[in-house]
Please model this.
Amino acid sequence: MKAMILAAGRGERLRPLTDEIPKPLIKAGGMALIEYHLDNLADTGFKDVIINTAWHADKIHSLLENGKKYGVHIRYSDEGTALETAGGIINALPLLGDEPFLVVNGDIWCHFDFTELPELEEGKQAHLILVDNPDHNEKGDFALEDGLVKNSGETMHTYSGIGIFSPEFFAGQQPGVLPLAPVLRQKCEHGLVTGQLYEGLWTDVGTIERLEELEKQLAHGLANA
Model:
């Protein structure tokens, strides 16, 4: 299975840190966020990684190069102007091929074991990793009922930014700027998305405050527990 890391965004809420570098290159514990993903992917058997870029794309190319030093082979999907999540994936489909692929947000930090990912069930188009709701998303995004991801339910969870998608998931969508959430909700409405709950350490590094908290965890070894 191929993997795609989403790395095109600027990260407005992390300014001024992201004025000069893209958000996935922000460092925590002395290492860029995207490097944690590459190490994790390599450790769990992934070889082919596609990374989409836009904001300061040259700096991502310069740091990661062809991926050899991380034990993977990297190809880039350069967008020029960021196309949002679904738009970026659609733009990269020629590199991703005809089989289901893993997508990971480049601005999260977690210990998720990618070997725990299942194959897509027959007739399903995506599988999401959900987490307990963080303070900044108390209402959550989706419910999980009998393995199916629902748009609403008694207990809501947050989408972690990790998921498996089939190319069919994006069939009929026009190239260009397109967020993922509306497409996901449409697919959930038709029962096409499965999911699982991840209860390990996970951080959406979307603000300076969350970055500082992650730094504290890493400094005290809490994030390695």
Residues 109 and 203 are 5 Å apart (CA to CA). The longest strand covers residues 156-165. The chain is about 25% helix and 25% strand.
